[in-house]
């Protein structure tokens, strides 16, 4: 069976001393996300789309923000745990298309690394990962 998931994630950015991480890449910025985890919106949206495509609820259901074990967690671990659920259900990822809405900083120098990171976590070829 073929299933499709769609999601988005948003975090406010503030001058809070936190790293600005997208797709597992630290982006030089004076601002960081306000979040319980590391605030990687791109990874969160990927998780949400996978969970949604399988009708397994949302990120907060699986990784609640009131659970201290997820405080400042590296969001790549959330994708790994989500992929375990995908595999348990008997599915695999064919491709993924993502969009980032952000005025600054410019992300062009980091897109390839984001694609590589996502491809590795989803166990698919980089040619099947779009980040724009």
SSE sequence, one letter per element: EEEEHHHEHE
Largest sheet: 2 strands, antiparallel
**Count of separate DSSP helical elements:** 4
Mean pLDDT: 95
Structural class: alpha+beta
Indicate the low-confidence ranges by residue numbers: none
Number of strands: 6
What is the general shape?
Answer: globular
Radius of gyration: 14 Å
Helix proportion of residues, in percent?
25-40%
Beta fraction: 5-15%
Distance between the termini: 28 Å
Strand order of the largest sheet: 1-4
Describe this structure in words.
By secondary structure, the chain is α+β, with helices and mostly antiparallel strands. The chain has four helices and six strands. The chain has helices at 41-53, 59-62, 75-88, 111-122, and strands at 13-14, 20-22, 25-27, 32-33, 96-98, 129-131. Strands 1-4 form a two-stranded antiparallel sheet. Helix 4 links the parallel strand 5 (96-98) and strand 6. Helix 1 (41-53) packs parallel to helix 3. The protein is globular and about 45 Å long. The model has no long low-confidence stretch (mean pLDDT 95).
């Amino acid at each position: 069976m073929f299933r499709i998931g769609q999601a988005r994630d948003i975090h406010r950015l503030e001058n809070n001393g936190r790293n600005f991480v997208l797709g597992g890449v630290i982006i030089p910025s004076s601002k960081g996300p306000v979040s319980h985890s590391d605030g990687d919106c791109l990874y969160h949206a990927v998780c949400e789309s996978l969970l949604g495509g399988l009708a397994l609820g949302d990120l907060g259901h699986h990784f609640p923000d009131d659970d201290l074990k997820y405080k400042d967690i590296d969001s790549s671990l959330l994708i790994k745990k989500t992929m375990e659920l995908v595999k348990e259900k008997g599915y695999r990822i064919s491709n993924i298309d993502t969009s980032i809405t952000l005025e600054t900083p410019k992300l062009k120098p980091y897109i390839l690394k984001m694609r590589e990171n996502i491809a590795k976590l989803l166990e698919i070829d980089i040619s099947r990962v779009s980040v724009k």
